[in-house]
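=== RUN LOG ===
request id: a7f3
mode: sequence -> structure
chains: 1
length: 676
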Amino acid sequence: MSIPPELAGAIPLIDRFQVEGFLKAMQKQIQSSGKRGFFIKKSVGPQVREKFTLEDMLCFQKDPIPTSLLKVPNDLVSRSIKLFHVILKYMGVDSPAIISLEERIELVAKLYKHTLKRSELRDELFAQISKQTRNNPDRSWLIRAWELMYLCASSMPPSKDIGAYLSEYVHYIAHGATTDSDVRVLALNTLNALKRSVKAGPRVAIPAREEIEALLTSRKLTTIVFFLDETFEEITYDMATTVADAVEELAGIIKLSVYSSFSLFECRKIVNGSKSSEVGNEEYIGLDDNKYIGDLLSEFKSAKDRNKGEILHCKLVFKKRLFRESDEAVTDPMFVQLSYVQLQHDYILGNYPVGRDDAAQLTALQILVEIGFIDNPESCVEWISLLERFLPRQVAITRAKRDWELDIISRYQLMEHLSKDDARNQFLRILRTLPYGNSVFFSVRKIDDPIGLLPGRIILGINKRGVHFFRPVPKEYLHSAELRDIMQFGSSNTAVFFKMRVAGVLHIFQFETKQGEEICVALQTHINDVMLRRYSKARSGSATSTVSQNDVSQADKPPNAEMYDKRVQELSKVVDESQKKADQLRDELQRKTQQEREMQEELEGLKDTLQSERHIIKEVTSERDRLKSLCDEKESSLQVALVEKNRLETKLTNGQGQENNTKMDLSGNHCERDVD
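=== RESULT ===
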């Protein structure tokens, strides 16, 4: 018998399904219940099939299943059976009343709780739901089954092989000519959700109640994303929205056409009122494109709950991951504005140490961008606050306040013919010319410093020129290492290292940070840009040389052509190696992330097993105590019986003694009578 087309993807997975075991258990269940059959089958011919197959197993049934559909560990079989009970209840099978929205949310949350951390149970769940969507005789049940499939696909993916079958099956239903319109919509939504969850992986946290409700009621939730100037925009999200989705939506809202170098960051700030020594410090943590917005918001809430002794603010911030040389050619107004805001933010924090002249000029330019040009700036009520706001504190203390005011006013008055855009571009140009200009900054701790010149805490700045080291307090530039001096670099989850030349000698520096991957990616990107730029120049030089050779005789052929070709090949090789290294780093990160997920799943399994063992031990201990108590009672009863026995024996002995005495007395009396 041929397999239906919608199940074609399941053929390679036949070994994953326990067809024989399931069907034997079903036959046993059928016989014990006195029913004639369980499966809702569509006849495919005049003959009635006597042997059940995979097709039969993956058909709708309204009664509980006796075992799992897939081959799962023994300790998961009972859980698999319970999953099917929840599915039946959610679908409303044999339910006299219509199941409410609240009940549906609770049931979905229960499924998430039991399957989110266990890949085997996720596969089993998807297999069971897909089973309930085939040959379902009731339209309302069918729609509920597809609704449940959509909810599960939005928060967690099946494994690779089950995912391939499921995608093929859902695609077949979604594009079927006879598919119900409501089912088609749900199937298409499920297909899109599967694509996203397979790429992003399962949710870390169990989706919140409001997320489930929003998906069930086809509405979006909202959250706030901040910019570095404290302005913000509201974005929408649902259970399956990732950072990449949010960035794309936000770019559309603010009309940012070039946003590949932008991303969302997690900003954590300990505010006044906390006992921590790091009050006011902001930490920006880059977020993976595949991170779920729902998980982030859940982590924010958990972080606040964990840090009850500190007043911790967590928020999402939109900013550039790094500044690239190609940014200078971008003319998108929003791109320029956001670049200005980020550089201004870093400058005010003191990340760009400059001299007095540059500081005064930069302050005047920022004021011009803020309020435009006015004839008498000192009459402006905001003037003093603007001076304090745009002049870094570390620079301001190097000079009297009035001297700063006079210097900045004189520079500001010379800017009469500058527009706000001109002032903004000039500000960007001044910072760009600094050796550490257009850097992205990372706060790290020193682990290994072979030279012994770096402080314990350091700020690393990374730009197209290399790596720059700063002392955080007071803000002070220490040292730079150009890209050509960095021989090797790498990172782990908690550290980053650089093997670089200092004064012609190779040294290895190590720093503690959770942003090691971001640091390495930023460095590798700049190295790739340099290699591509050199390659492009060499190729254009080679092309020019070739054109000129066509206009002169062969005897006048310049000797540089071969050198150019060789150089191009070398640069191409370097670019390929750099790209390969970047790919390796990315693959390594993905591998480590996958290992972490697997270890987490294994840990959850061990926790469940431990809990089960503890429960068994508790039951055994309880039984032991009961038996011990019973033994004590029996022992006590035995002691009482022994005492009673001794008492009776004593009494019996005493009775016999008295009887003997009586007999002796009687014998004496007889003797006396005889004598008489």
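=== NOTES ===
Residues 560-675 form the longest helix (116 residues).
DSSP finds 19 helices and twelve strands in the chain.
=== END ===
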